[in-house]
Amino acid sequence: xxxxxxxxxxxxxxxxxxxxxxxxxxxxxxxxxxxxxxxxxxxxxxxxxxxxxxxxxxxxxxxxxxxxxxxxxxxxxxxxxxxxxxxxxxxxxxxxxxxxxxxxxxxxxxxxxxxxxxxxxxxxxxxxxxxxxxxxxxxxxxxxxxxxxxxxxxxxxxxxxxxxxxxxxxxxxxxxxxxxxxxxxxxxxxxxxxxxxxxxxxxxxxxxxxxxxxxxxxxxxxxxxxxxxxxxxxxxxxxx
Length: 240
What we know:
CATH architecture of the largest domain: 2-Layer Sandwich
InterPro entries: Inositol_monophosphatase-like, Inositol_monophosphatase_CS
Structural class: alpha+beta
Number of helices: 5
Keywords: Magnesium, Metal-binding
Family: Belongs to the inositol monophosphatase superfamily.
Organism: Paracoccus zhejiangensis
Cofactor: Mg(2+)
Shape: globular
Number of strands: 16
Number of domains: 2
Radius of gyration: 17 Å
Helix content: 10-25%
């Protein structure tokens, strides 16, 4: 927050990987110092750290996005978050997503409920695509992505932080979150567990279970929704 709305230094990453700011790096340094000091045997996977292949051999691994929604952060919007997760082998077992400008803290662990500022949350009970609110980007509504070229009659909305989108589904404020592009693990690791513990089903775009701390550090898209709505979305998508 020392950097937010104070014109932080910013630049573009190589290979069109998006913008980064001095705040992203400062948060990353702080989190790595605190977390790795507490758990020195854990692996480390962060959007803003150099790749460390040794994480693949670790029983536990931190999966971190220091600032998810950097463009929103640069623009002075409130919809950016910090996304922190722990993978035990290939499953997420603890998660926190925090929006500092809104003071919203979403948390979950593998054996407990999803919480927002300490209070339980749950997914929407909606089971029909018609009229559902789906958090996704505009290109996901193009006809070629849907069976028979027929785009479902849902209402598309967008939020800049992918981690927050998953938490909004967990909270029941939106019915589903959808990504048909590859999703980086650091963007979705924490939000996936929070959504699952709130009652959602979270898979890749093929309907297959998500795995984490992989060599590629990315998934083949993502569908997150209550089980009945998830099934309808998955069945309606074309298969690449």
